[in-house]
Specification:
8-stranded mixed beta sheet; 337 residues; globular; 11 helices; 32% helix
């Protein structure tokens, strides 16, 4: 690993997620997920240039040919130490944003160079996330019901009191049936399992467990947060597409290898920042007031110290700068003021 970071880089990274959330929020509920995502990408990339780090995007918008900005391998930051791996999702939950639904967030994670797991051909991952008190009892290779009984015992609660976050997808039909068979409650969401992992890892959010298959890149982002929170997470590659299965087979990767937190985030000084775009159970979305001000609500977590900060930002920006309609230099100057 590279040199240790001697400051809380998360406090700089939250400016990045704030800028992305501010720019994307204008498109909330307009039904155009591409426009909202592009606005967030532009803002995030612009502000990332000012962060004091030598960053490389390892989880981004895709390969360079498909994503002209924030692509995998792109250099970000001011170009000075520390050398960091960076994972980004300018809008986690583009459909949530487009349709004005809860839990859309702008999110970023960073860790020492070479420490974030690179998914390669793996697009989907089976995930299991819990809070600190239950982290030692989970085993993703065991049936979901068995895990729920173990988690309930570790938390000192009845299994019927647990709430499980699951993505509302056809692939989860059997999983949902098994969870309900234990008496545990299910909260179904169309998208947004990074937020689901956050809620499962933070006590008192109304979600106790995240289960099921979601995106692998989102799994790495979630792992940075869960590790920083001291929670528990395990994953398994879970290919859903024929091409994905073929590429994983060609690479000789074992689908039954359990991915633990130290596999997904190898360094102990990971940083995670997220800003809500739409409202969530514990983060308020971007709110516009009549006087022209804008309010954001963010969470910043550092693994080394275990510090968790909730930051409420009150911004006085001209709308054209918030929405990314003017030149980048002015936008960066305002967003970093």
């Amino acid at each position: 690993m590279s040199e240790k970071v001697h400051r809380n880089l998360g406090m700089e990274l939250v400016r990045v997620t704030e800028a992305a959330a501010l720019s994307a929020a204008r498109y909330m509920g307009l039904g155009d997920k591409e426009a909202g995502d592009q606005a967030a990408v532009d803002a995030m990339r612009a502000v990332l240039r000012t962060v004091e780090m030598d960053g490389v995007v390892v989880i981004g918008e895709g390969e360079k040919d498909e994503a002209p900005m924030l692509f995998n391998g792109e250099r970000v930051g001011a170009g000075r130490p520390p050398a960091m791996d960076v994972a980004v999702d300018p809008v986690e939950g583009t459909r949530l944003l487009a349709f004005g639904r809860p839990n859309a967030i702008a999110v970023i994670a960073a860790s020492a160079r070479g420490s974030l797991w690179k998914p390669g051909a793996s697009l989907y991952m089976n995930k299991l996330v819990v809070e600190r008190q239950a982290r030692h009892v989970i085993d993703i290779t065991r049936p979901p019901a068995e895990n729920l009984y173990r988690i309930a015992e570790a938390l000192g609660r009845a299994v019927e009191s647990l709430t499980v976050f699951v993505l509302d997808k056809p692939r989860h039909r059997d999983l949902i049936t098994e969870i309900r068979g234990t008496g545990a409650r299910v909260t179904l969401h169309t998208d947004g399992d990074v937020m689901g992992a956050l809620m499962a890892a933070i006590p008192g959010t109304g979600v106790d467990v995240l289960m099921g298959v979601g995106g692998t890149p989102e799994g790495v982002l979630a792992a940075a947060a869960v590790k920083a929170l001291g929670g528990g997470m395990q994953g398994l590659r879970a290919p859903q597409l024929d091409d994905e299965r073929a590429r994983l087979a060609a690479d000789g990767l074992a689908l039954d290898r359990v991915l633990h937190l130290d596999d997904l985030v190898a360094d102990d000084d990971a940083f995670f920042a997220a800003t809500a775009i739409t409202d969530s159970p514990f983060l308020e979305g971007v709110h516009f007031d009549r006087a022209g001000g804008v309010t954001t609500h963010s969470i910043v977590i550092r693994a080394r110290s275990g510090s968790i900060r909730f930051i409420k930002g009150m911004h006085r920006l001209n709308p054209e700068h918030i929405f990314g309609a003017v030149d980048t230099e002015k936008a960066v100057a305002l967003a970093t003021a």
